[in-house]
Design goal:
Layout lengths: L4 E4 L4 H13 L4 E4 L23 E4 L2 E4 L1 H11 L10 H32 L5 H21 L13 H13 L3 H7 L3 H10 L3 H5 L1
Parallel strand pairs: 1-2
Antiparallel strand pairs: 1-3, 3-4
Helix pairs in contact: 1-2, 1-5, 3-4, 3-5, 4-6
């Protein structure tokens, strides 16, 4: 059986979410490098894997997927290893709610408006960064309110919600503003300190 293939760039937040899921499951996979920001553009062959030219895309024994959420759930359900989704309906719904809010309200402000703006712009837009920090504060406060007591966001079980949050928050913490804000949320800071010690986080 051929290794599963994950197409994307190592720097991508969403590629990293998929990689974290693969690492947590102990799957031997291959990352196929694909830089959608390359000067020559997106290679035409890749549009067969993702018609919108985004990353990641995934292939396993001829079965192709795109969209990170679908990939991560498939990886959890198709491979042996620790279960990354709750079995109880309410906990599973909470996991999906957290993932949804991170996609809708965290990714753009925390990654692009704060981290990328600060790290990659010669003259960062400080007003954009300030708005991003404000939105990030609301995101972190909401994460705390939705979390269950325990080492992970949903209590004792590490889930796809943790992997989603770890990748987005990890990028946010590349800048001083992100680290300063997270320090105000002690429960999330403790959660972060635990997740960065996992082998999956180092490898993915």
């Amino acid at each position: 059986m051929a290794k599963p293939l994950l197409y994307g760039a190592h720097y991508s937040v969403y590629v990293r979410i998929a990689r974290l899921a693969l690492e947590e499951k102990g799957v031997d996979y291959e990352l196929v490098p694909l830089d959608i920001f390359a000067a020559e553009g997106i290679p035409s062959w890749y549009l067969e894997h993702h018609p919108f030219g985004r990353i990641p895309a995934f292939e396993h024994d001829g079965f192709r997927l795109f969209e990170t959420g679908a990939i991560a759930r498939y990886v959890d359900e198709a491979f042996d290893g620790p279960v990354l989704q709750p079995t109880q309906a309410r906990s599973r719904a909470r996991m999906n709610q957290i993932i949804g809010l991170l996609d809708a309200y965290a990714y753009r402000p925390m990654v692009w408006d704060v981290a990328v703006e600060r790290l990659e712009k010669a003259a960062p837009d400080e007003a954009l960064i300030a708005r991003g920090i404000s939105q990030a504060e609301t995101v972190l406060r909401t994460l705390v309110s939705l979390s269950t007591p325990g080492p992970w966001l949903l209590g004792d079980q590490l889930t796809l919600a943790d992997l989603h949050a770890a990748s987005i928050i990890g990028y946010f913490l590349k800048v001083a503003e992100g680290r300063k804000l997270l320090a105000h949320f002690s429960d999330l800071q403790d959660w972060w300190d635990r997740i960065v010690r996992r082998a999956s986080f180092s490898n993915g």
